[in-house]
Design goal:
The protein has 86 residues and is α+β, with helices and mostly antiparallel strands. It has 2 helices and 5 strands. It starts with 8 loop residues before the first helix and ends in a 6-residue tail after the last strand.
């Protein structure tokens, strides 16, 4: 078989199929519980921006950080959505 797309394209395709091409469903306003704590000791962050990268605000000290989506998704333990008022 001739590899016209370069090395690793087949593995990348398998990862996208198994993981889902869209990744996690993280929305603005969600509260993320991360695996690693912020230096202030808090492990919960508010989502201020969602896209190719996330802008997160620490719920402990209010510090805002920008993380690439790939790095943030690896460290998410739980996503909590605010309840909509009926």
């Amino acid at each position: 078989m001739i590899d016209i797309f370069g090395k690793g394209w087949y593995n990348m395709l398998l990862v996208l199929i198994l993981k889902g091409a869209t990744g996690m469903d993280v929305r603005v306003g969600d509260v993320l519980t991360m695996k690693k704590k912020h230096p202030c000791g808090a492990c919960e962050f508010d989502v201020l921006r969602s896209g190719m990268d996330f802008k997160l605000k620490c719920r402990g000290c209010g510090h805002e950080v920008m993380l690439p989506r790939s790095k943030a998704e690896k460290n998410i333990r739980k996503i909590t959505r605010p309840e909509a008022d009926a």
